[in-house]
Amino acid sequence: NQKTTHPLVVAARFPLSPSMSAASKNTGKYNHQQWENSEFPILCQTCLGDNPYIRMTKDAFGAECKICARPFTIFRWCPGRGMRFKKTEICQTCAKLKNVCQTCILDLEYGLPTQVRDTALGIDEALPSSDVNREYYIQNKEAELAKTDGTEPIGQLGKAQKPSDLLAKLARKQPYYKRNKPHICSFFVKGECTRGETCPYRHETPLDPNGPLAKQNIKDRYHGNNDPVAIKMLNRGKKVPDAPEDKSVCTLFVVGFEQGSIREADLRDHFYRYGEVRTVFISPKSNVAFVEMATRDTAERALTADFGKLVINGQNLRVSWAQPKGAKKGDAGEAAAAAPAAAAAAAPMPMLPPPGAGRIHYPSMDPSRSGTNPAK
């Protein structure tokens, strides 16, 4: 029978040399020093929210980074009223390497997925896949970051060329707070949610639960590989909308500007380079504009030249074809549109009381129907 020896006995018989024990202690101390302990996260304006008096909870070494698997500091907060609680997902080192937000993993400058940004700038920089190589790579990048002030990107992103037309076409300049809404309640989708208005999740039906946008993950978003959101944006930015079949349509639809920042003269001066501008109308309530060109050829030329690249007064605007007023919606659309008008026409008109009949009593004044106190 072969005898087994306890590990402690083996260690006592063959003690470690001072150099080996010191090396192991230094290795453990060095690895612990690489853990991130920060005071404030790296966030975009959308994830931070519009509340200037935001309150955050901090948990030092609360979880491991979803990219490099190293412990880092977790921050958790609520960006606004009616929004869901958000938290940081990746460490600050990984966020600085790609210049992305720690929560949504979108570019801090353009508000786009990394795949869209890297495609537009021609960047092809991937992190090593193995744990040892990734740790060595990140340590070298941290040494590069230590030589800078931390506000400028490094690597290929820091050496990238000036923004291309594709970035100017897809960049998001304003915060998009709708992205902070609560997730859809899975029990509501199944018809089993019993919490009603107290449910913290949205009671809505998903548009396409089996579509490609339902299969998103942080690693694909960070590395820029097969990101469904990026693929959709790239396809949208390259395709110019088809012209309407009605050749009489010469009106362009412009949207994306703030109230009072664009005047009719600004639009007329810009589109005049493509041909004669017949009329310009700006809706002050909805912040949209309609530019009617004199001919169909000038309208098509203006849309092709400005699609995704229209910048007026420093604002990125979106231009497309305006829907004609007499556009047909089909039999089903016409029936649906005509239903309210038909119902209103068929409803009996209320009879007015004769003169001198006294005070008029409307149904809303009935306390038994509206739950209010009787009128005095």
How would you briefly describe this protein structure?
With 376 residues, the chain is α+β, with helices and mostly antiparallel strands.
The overall average pLDDT, rounded, is 75
Beta strands, count? 8
Number of helices: 15
Sequence of strands across the biggest β-sheet: 5-6-4-8-7
Describe the structure.
With 376 residues, this protein is an alpha+beta fold. Helices cover 35% and strands 12% of the residues. Helix 4 packs across helix 6 (131-146).
Task: Describe the secondary structure blueprint for this structure.
Blueprint: H1 7-13, H2 18-33, H3 45-48, E1 56-64, E2 71-77, E3 86-87, H4 92-98, H5 114-121, H6 131-146, H7 155-158, H8 165-170, H9 186-190, H10 218-223, H11 228-238, E4 251-255, H12 264-271, E5 277-283, E6 288-293, H13 296-306, E7 310-312, E8 315-321, H14 330-346, H15 367-370
Antiparallel strand pairs: 1-2, 2-3, 4-6, 4-8, 5-6, 7-8
Helix pairs in contact: 4-6
Keywords summarizing the entry:
three-stranded antiparallel β-sheet; five-stranded antiparallel β-sheet; 376 residues; single chain; alpha+beta
